[in-house]
What we know:
Layout: E1 3-9, E2 22-27, E3 32-38, E4 43-51, E5 64-71, E6 79-89, E7 101-108, E8 115-122, E9 132-140, E10 153-162
Antiparallel strand pairs: 1-10, 2-3, 3-10, 4-9, 5-8, 5-10, 6-7, 6-9
Amino acid sequence: MSVLIKEWDVGAMRRPGSSAPAFDLTVGSNFPWNHLKFDPASDEVVYVFGVMPESDIYTADGDVEVEIDWVSDTSTTGTVRWKVQLLGRADGEAWDTAFSDSATEDDPRTAGDSLHIATVSFTTPSLAPGDRFILALTREGTHANDTYDGTDAHMVGARLLAA
């Protein structure tokens, strides 16, 4: 059973100055919802930050999963390719350094206007209890495996789980 480590809504995600998805609010028939519009013609990224829990919840180099919640808004068929990069930092380690782990997931769109949960798995990532971590969440719209053309993938949230 997976254990939730951290969850983010799109308002808590940091967008870079370039290659960033647009932030949007949709006023639906039943409720309003914030989302990030990841374009199919480019690679767009957001960043999230957190702290790994202590060893009673997470053991060093234990497997983790990142779930990305996204919504499709049309009847267009195809697959969205998500890439997640991960970096754990302990006290005294360089902060702004290259990501140490990377994984991808090709998530097929199954129905229009529906929630999809893409799960990206990491086996023994470079993480330890108490590490500060950074995740880069990217839609690789230019990748050959991303075939959800002509429309945005609307990210509504993400979470990190100990697997």
